[in-house]
């Protein structure tokens, strides 16, 4: 069962929540992080894109698919995978992205990925007409 926490009593509690919510079994160790008296694992295993009950939820992902902010898909990939409440293209590009998430590339590539993510966000803002298209 997923749990969304949005307020914290201290900086330390926030750090524990972040550690608990990003714990990937085996990859990050064998013992899950404890938060509020319980052990947790990364929510991406069960609901990687929680939709909030009120207002609009902007979906963001490092994988290409039918999301608000994500890399542009190139090539043909009629196959969509639905994993933990998120649909993504089944493609070589997304397999490379998964590998980069688990085994970070060199710093120069990390910087390039950061720039690409920024451009994806700007593209979304322009598409939604939330910013000037001339910037």
UniProtKB/TrEMBL annotation:
GO terms for cellular component: cytoplasm; lipid droplet; membrane. Keywords: Lipid metabolism. GO terms for biological process: lipid homeostasis; triglyceride catabolic process. One of its GO terms (molecular function) is triacylglycerol lipase activity. The keyword Lipid metabolism applies. PANTHER family: CALCIUM-INDEPENDENT PHOSPHOLIPASE A2 IPLA2 -RELATED (PTHR12406), PATATIN-LIKE PHOSPHOLIPASE DOMAIN-CONTAINING PROTEIN 4 (PTHR12406:SF7). The keyword Lipid metabolism applies. Residues 1-55 form the PNPLA domain. It comes from the Eukaryota. Signal peptide: none annotated. A motif (DGA/G) lies at residues 42-44. This is PNPLA domain-containing protein. It comes from Alosa alosa (allis shad).
């Amino acid at each position: 069962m997923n749990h969304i926490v949005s307020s914290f009593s201290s900086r330390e509690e926030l750090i524990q929540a972040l550690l608990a919510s990003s714990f990937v079994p085996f990859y990050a160790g064998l013992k899950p992080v404890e938060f509020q008296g319980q052990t947790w694992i990364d929510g991406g295993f069960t609901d990687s894109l929680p939709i909030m009950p009120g207002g609009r939820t902007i979906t963001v992902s490092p994988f290409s698919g039918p999301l608000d902010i994500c890399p542009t898909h190139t090539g043909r990939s009629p196959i969509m995978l639905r994993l933990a409440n998120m649909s993504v293209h089944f493609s070589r590009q997304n397999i490379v992205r998964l590998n980069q998430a688990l085994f970070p590339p060199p710093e120069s590539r990390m910087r390039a990925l950061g720039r690409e993510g920024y451009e994806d966000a700007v593209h979304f803002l322009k598409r939604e007409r939330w910013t000037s298209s001339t910037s």
